Each structure stands twice: as structure tokens, then as C-alpha cells.
TrEMBL record, chains A, B:
<dbReference type="InterPro" id="IPR016163">
    <property type="entry name" value="Ald_DH_C"/>
</dbReference>
<dbReference type="InterPro" id="IPR012134">
    <property type="entry name" value="Glu-5-SA_DH"/>
</dbReference>
<dbReference type="InterPro" id="IPR016161">
    <property type="entry name" value="Ald_DH/histidinol_DH"/>
</dbReference>
<feature type="domain" description="Aldehyde dehydrogenase">
    <location>
        <begin position="27"/>
        <end position="294"/>
    </location>
</feature>
<keyword id="KW-0560">Oxidoreductase</keyword>
<keyword id="KW-0641">Proline biosynthesis</keyword>
<dbReference type="Pfam" id="PF00171">
    <property type="entry name" value="Aldedh"/>
</dbReference>
<dbReference type="InterPro" id="IPR016162">
    <property type="entry name" value="Ald_DH_N"/>
</dbReference>
<keyword id="KW-0521">NADP</keyword>
<comment type="similarity">
    <text>Belongs to the gamma-glutamyl phosphate reductase family.</text>
</comment>
<keyword id="KW-0963">Cytoplasm</keyword>
<dbReference type="InterPro" id="IPR020593">
    <property type="entry name" value="G-glutamylP_reductase_CS"/>
</dbReference>
<comment type="pathway">
    <text>Amino-acid biosynthesis; L-proline biosynthesis; L-glutamate 5-semialdehyde from L-glutamate: step 2/2.</text>
</comment>
<keyword id="KW-0028">Amino-acid biosynthesis</keyword>
<dbReference type="InterPro" id="IPR015590">
    <property type="entry name" value="Aldehyde_DH_dom"/>
</dbReference>
<comment type="function">
    <text>Catalyzes the NADPH-dependent reduction of L-glutamate 5-phosphate into L-glutamate 5-semialdehyde and phosphate. The product spontaneously undergoes cyclization to form 1-pyrroline-5-carboxylate.</text>
</comment>
<dbReference type="InterPro" id="IPR000965">
    <property type="entry name" value="GPR_dom"/>
</dbReference>
Length: 443, 443
């Protein structure tokens, strides 16, 4: 199996020498940043916030230039809304940067401490990842957030904003670097990439970039996942389900169904499909149809749901569609097992919930559904780093391996084993001269 | 960036429908296995060991058939040695399976427990990954080890042995499945793939396989890493360094240098390069040259090392070569920073060590070297899951993200968030009706 083959990512061009050089410079700066103390990194993030404050007028002006270009190009209104910064939104983002400064340090935590033998002591310590590659669509506020999370956790970052936000991003990153100038953190730890060629090249910077964080559409995330060997923190789809079990409390089920769909329909943790047990479907839908209609939600049903009053038919592909809108599929299932099978087939392993008063159904659901979040009698909208109490959210991952689900600052660190000895050699343990104690020491 | 493009792994053929079906069957079996209790999984692994015991004669006979074919084909002696099972080696492997049965359960551990609000409680629980794809070269004993680790941790496995071990693997997997038949674990959780086509198809089973574990040559690992989107647990290179600092204890430095190179030269955690501070190089090499010669180690030096008596010149590429043999590069460095820079350029972020009595040098080295293992005054050969006290080693990862370094059973589990409420909805927290407590609860 070791014949020479075309590398998998050959569809993406090799990074040019200039990009390699810039990335190597960020990596060197990140190594210096990684040696900074908690207090130094905290102060650096505070300095970034101060610099953003000082540059507010300049940033808002740059944003107006982006908005003018967007208007001239007829950018979609949803994108324009994300692109737009005003004084309040900018001030909110700067407050967010200060909140990141105040977060507990994720670096230098001892996760394991073992005496392997007398005088031979092993530790596992959390350390920064190195360099993050962050690719945004629109959303200049996200640049401030991610840059501050990166510096707080000791990581450098290559930041690639969307073309539509190029003036805003340039002004923001210039301010952030000015802020770092007076701090212990080298300003070169943050670098802005501007061209599409550079953002494609970023995907090929294995060995220089440790984690890619995409912030944008599902299509952007999928493209990135398909075109890089670097680990990607994110998720393409968020097809979440709510199961209304035979033994559900009707009012409770309807309450969480409405919240899960309507509280913020564009969110990845909003539900796309209701799976209703056939025994409760007539009663549930009798109450649910008017409630969803009142909330402006368009329902699309399978045959059984349509027979119970859902007006539109769920077309082919409906069960695999993330609407990100006030549209909801409704399927009547024979039993809980059929609901589980539907989730296995159509879910994206993001977050799935059940409404039930039956402990056996609850237990079966919570054990059998293989999603990052499995919820009982509450809204799927709670699947969020801030709501989970992480203080910040770097992203939500639907991959199997950790970090999984909503990821806080801990997603930006890894660990390293440190072993200190006094001349210990392995041969002594192989021939029985010495033996391991493997004695746990206090963390 | 969302145009349609060729998928990255198009060089590897799409898995055929039959393989997809078999993999889906393993996944279903793995989901059932994932619901088994600790005691059931432990008993299942014991039953696997019993079945191997009962099938010993049959397995050894199958292995003799493989050896005869290998002899006819003129297989390299090193591969034949790995391929060969005898009664003692098989008995040792079966004892290994029983040891895996006895390991502490990695599943169902509560890693986080938080009250988000009254009646709304979040848990993070360790759960099996799902299905492992394991690709071996030769080494039928590794099949027994990995299969038992998979079942112990609640994971199904698609096992692909090397062609040269096909009879041995078939006999082993048949025995393992017979063992599972009397247990709570469905025998279909283990499945043997036999053709090269199937092992290429395995690399494309995203969504059905959660982790690929390659057990073989660096070339095999690199091929797999380059041709799959599924996470790979492993490492291609193991280029490890020992720095002999200006302030090293000469006898101690020589002792750990010899052990790091010679205790098992083919291991990935053996050193390939010595970096010797110029101030200590004359004294160190005066003692080291005869010691390495006596140990049968061939030294290859840079100009300065050759001037101090190293006879062979390190040719181009020497610093990037994993010899896996009794060959060692020697470079004289100006200072510690030059050694760190050499490791940054040529290391594979596996394990690097320093011999020094100077606390400042030790601290600088342990903080600045970005490898999975950073060691002080001890042999690099300690970088091993068993020596670290993990009870078993699934593999050693040189990737940045966790799991990193030697990985025990914990590398075969992930986690899931479980949230239980009483009708809680997100809207109540958005509008201030309720607020989060984020109160830590006992684990």
C-alpha cells in the first residue's frame, strides 16, 4: 500500500513561498507567546481591547466602506446584517474581548501526576496548540472574539476574513496588533490573510497550523473539511430532532418543541424534525398545529402526519435538510425504536432531545442516541458553550473524537508529557533490576 | 469557496456496496455493544481469551501455512519474525487479552457535572467511539490485542490483517467471534477484512468508522494519513533527540544516550540524533566514542563532531532519517538555543530529552520543545503507555490534538453531553425570566 500517489488535497494549490514564510513567522511568534505567563497573556488581551476602543472610529469607518461595496455588489441582506458593525455592536464585541481576558487560564494545568519509580516522575500538562487557522465569512465581530480566545490560550492565529469584510478586518487586526505591541506577546502572533489564494494555501499548512476553525456557512465548513489534513473544529450540518414519546407531557413537549424551533431558527441547534409517537400523535398535533401556525412555523409531514392535519408533504430530502428557517418536518413513528432508527439515519450527531415522562424511554434514548448532546425534557437550544457554563464558545464539533459538542477554551489547548528522572534507563526495567511503582501523586 | 471539487480521497476507490453493508452491520453490532455493562464487556473479553486458548492448535497451524507461503515468496526475515507465532508467543498474547479484560472500564465516567439552573442538570460522560478500523502489517498477535482493547472499551472493529498473515488472522478472528457467541456482545462487532480492495475501501468509510489505527511501517501510516478523512491514531516518524547540555553529568548523559539508542533500536522512541553542546563535546565524545563502538553503534557526525573523532560524515538527509537501527547522528551545537532550533526543524514532535544539571537549561528545554514527550535526565525509551502506567497502549500519536503521545484505553472513548430538564426552554434565559446558576455538582 505504499506506492506513490497523488496527495489528497491536490485540488487545493500548494501554498506559495511567501505564505509559508509568513506562517513560519507566526509560528515562531506563537512559540514565544506559549512561554508567556497567565498574567502576561491576560494583560495582552486587555491591551487588545484597549486598542480596539481607541480605534473604534477607524474600524466603523472601514466597516462603512465594506457596506458600501456590499451595497454596490448587491450582497444578500442576511450577509449585510452580519457584516454590519455599529457603535453598539463594536462596543459589545470589545466587552467580549475583556470577558475573554477574565477567563481562567486553560494552560499549565496538571492533568496527570505519577511517580513511575523513585526519582522518575511523570506529569501531563495542558499546553497551547500552537497556531490556529481561522476562516470567516462576513462577521468582523468574530475576528475580535477568536483573536482574543487565541491569545488568551497562548496560540498564534492566521486570520482570513471574508472578502466582503476586508476593510473591517484590516482595521481590526491592525488595532489588535497595536494593542499587542505594548504587551509581552509578540504582535506577529496575529496575522491577517487577505486573498482567496492565501486562504486556500492555509488549508495546506500542515505542520505550521494545528487547527482550522471555520466560521461561516455549512458549505464553507464542508469545503474546508474536504480539503485539508489539518484538524477542523466545526460542524457542517445541524440536523437536530425532538422525539415526542408516547408518554410525553403534552404541554411540556409542545413548549420545548416551539422553543427548539423558533427561539433562533438559524442556529445549528434548532430542530429540523419532530418525531411523534403514533399513540400520542392525534392529541399532540391537535394542540401543536395551531401553536406552530401562530408562531409562523410551516410544517411538512409524512403521510401519517398529513392525515392528522399537517398540510404540506415533506418532499424527498426533507429529512436530510437543515432549513435554518421557520420550517419543521413532522413524522409519526411507530415506536421509540423507529425514532432512534430515523435519528441514526438522518441525524448529524449534533443534539437530539426527547420529551417523555417514562424513565425507561428516557434511559433508552439517552443511552442509544450517539450525538454530542442528548437531552431529556428540555430545548435543544441549550447546546451552547455559554449556556453550558464554559464562559466562551470556540465552536461546536460534531466529530466523534474529543473535543465534541460545544467547545470552550479547552478546545484550544492540548497536553504534553513531562518526565523528570535522575539517570533512569529502560534497560533496568526490562531486566528486572528495577520495577515501576506507578504511584499516583497529587495533581 | 463552495464550488464543486473533486473529493480529496478520490485516489482511493469508493467502498463497494458489499463493504458498506458489512461495515453498517458492524456499526449496528457496535451500538448494541455500547449498551453492554462493564461486567458484560469484561466477561466477553475473558470469553475471547478462552476461545483463543481452545483454538490454539488451529491458530498455530494457520500460522505455519502463512510461514510456508512467506518462505516461498522470500519475505524479508524481519517480517517473517513478526509474522511467526509459536506456542509461547500465542500464550503470551492470550495472557495479554486477559490483562485487557482486567483493565478499569473507560466507559461511563462522569467528567463534568453542572447544574445549569434548578432542575436542569448537565453531565459529560465517556462513551465508546463506535467502530475502529485497524490495519495491520504482519503481526497476528496485534490482532488479538487490538480486538480485546476494542471490545473492552465498547467499540466494534473492522480488522484488516496483512496478506502475509491471512490464514493466521482468519483463524484468530474466527476464534474471537466464537468466544463472543456465548457472551452479551454480538460477535458481529468484530469483522475481518481480507482483500486489499477492502482495506482501501475502509479508508473511505467516513460516518461508519470513527478512528483508524494503523499498525505497521511508517510508509503504511503515512499512506493512510494521506488518504482518509477519518482520524488516524498513530505516527509516521519517530525522530527523537537527546541534548547533552553544557552542564550535563557526563556519566549520566552517556548512560541515557546508550539506553535511548540501543535498548531497542527499532522502536519509535529510540533516539536518532545526539545534540552535544560545544563546551562539553570534547570530553563527552572522548568517553562516548569507545562506549558506542563497544555497543555496536555506528556514529555519523557533522564537521565539528568528525573533528572530535566521529569517523563517518552525516550525509544529506541524515537529520531527517529514522534509522530504526544501531546508527546515531551526532551534531555539535553552539548552545541550547541551537539545539532547540534543530529539534524544531528536524524533530517529529514525538519524544525529546535533555541531560543537564542546570535548572535553567532544564526549564527552558521542558517549556520550549513542542513534542508529545519532553524528558529530563532519563531515557527516551520510557515514552510508552505501559511504562507510563496506562495498563495498555493503543498507539502513540504525534498529532498536536489530544490524544497525544502514548495512548491507553482512554484513546478509544469519547464523551457525550447529557442534559436533563423539566420543560426548560432557552427563551426564558434570553428574556431574563430565568438565569443560569452554573453550579458545579460532585462528579
Amino acid at each position: 500500500m505504499s506506492q506513490t500517489i497523488t496527495p489528497p488535497t491536490s485540488v487545493v494549490p500548494e501554498p506559495d513561498p511567501q505564505l509559508l514564510q509568513r506562517a513560519a513567522a507566526v509560528r515562531r511568534a506563537a512559540m514565544a507567546l506559549g512561554q508567556c505567563s497567565d498574567a502576561e497573556r491576560r494583560a495582552a488581551v486587555e491591551a487588545m481591547a484597549d486598542a480596539l476602543d481607541a480605534a473604534s472610529a477607524e474600524i466603523l469607518e472601514a466597516n462603512r466602506a465594506d457596506l458600501a461595496a456590499a451595497a454596490a455588489e448587491g450582497l444578500a441582506p442576511a450577509l449585510v446584517a452580519r457584516l454590519k458593525l455599529d457603535g453598539a455592536k463594536l462596543a459589545g464585541a470589545i466587552t467580549g474581548v475583556r470577558q475573554v481576558a477574565a477567563l481562567a487560564d486553560p494552560v499549565g494545568r496538571r492533568q496527570l501526576h505519577t511517580e513511575l519509580d523513585q526519582g522518575l516522575v511523570l506529569e501531563r500538562l495542558s499546553v497551547p496548540l500552537g497556531v490556529l487557522g481561522v476562516i470567516f465569512e462576513a462577521r468582523p465581530d468574530a475576528v475580535m472574539q477568536i483573536a482574543s480566545l487565541a491569545i488568551r490560550s497562548g496560540n498564534g492565529a492566521l486570520l482570513k476574513g471574508g472578502r466582503e469584510a476586508s476593510c473591517s478586518c484590516a482595521a481590526i487586526v491592525a488595532a489588535l496588533q497595536r494593542g499587542l505591541e505594548g504587551s509581552a506577546v509578540p504582535p506577529g502572533a496575529l496575522e491577517l490573510l487577505t486573498s482567496r489564494q492565501e486562504s486556500l494555501g492555509l488549508l495546506r499548512l500542515d505542520g505550521l497550523v494545528d487547527l482550522i476553525i471555520p466560521r461561516g456557512s455549512n458549505a464553507l465548513v464542508r469545503f474546508i473539511q474536504d480539503n485539508t489534513r489539518i484538524p477542523v473544529l466545526g460542524h457542517a450540518d445541524g440536523i437536530c430532532h425532538l422525539v415526542v414519546d408516547r408518554a410525553a407531557d403534552l404541554a411540556l413537549a409542545l413548549r420545548i418543541a416551539l422553543d427548539s424551533k423558533t427561539q433562533y431558527p438559524a442556529a445549528c441547534n434548532a430542530i429540523e424534525t419532530l418525531l411523534v409517537h403514533q399513540a400520542i400523535a392525534p392529541a399532540f398535533l391537535a394542540a401543536a398545529l395551531p401553536a406552530f401556525a401562530a408562531a409562523g412555523v410551516e410544517l411538512r409531514g409524512d403521510a401519517a402526519a398529513c392525515a392528522l392535519g399537517v398540510e404540506q408533504v415533506a418532499g424527498p430530502g426533507a429529512w436530510d435538510t437543515e432549513y435554518s428557517d421557520l420550517i419543521l418536518n413532522v413524522k409519526v413513528v411507530e415506536d421509540l425504536e423507529a425514532a432512534l432508527e430515523h435519528i441514526r439515519r438522518h441525524g448529524s450527531r449534533h443534539t437530539d432531545a426527547i420529551a417523555t415522562t417514562d424513565p425507561a424511554s428516557a434511559d433508552r434514548f439517552l443511552r442509544a442516541v450517539d450525538s454530542a448532546g442528548v437531552f431529556l425534557n428540555c430545548s435543544t437550544r441549550f447546546a451552547d458553550g455559554n449556556r453550558y457554563g464554559f464562559g466562551a464558545e470556540v465552536g461546536i464539533s460534531t466529530q466523534t473524537l474529543p473535543p465534541r459538542g460545544p467547545v470552550g477554551l479547552e478546545g484550544l489547548v492540548t497536553y504534553r508529557y513531562r518526565l523528570r528522572g535522575e539517570g533512569h534507563i529502560a534497560a533496568d526495567y526490562a531486566d528486572g533490576t528495577r520495577s515501576f511503582s506507578h504511584r499516583p501523586l497529587p495533581l
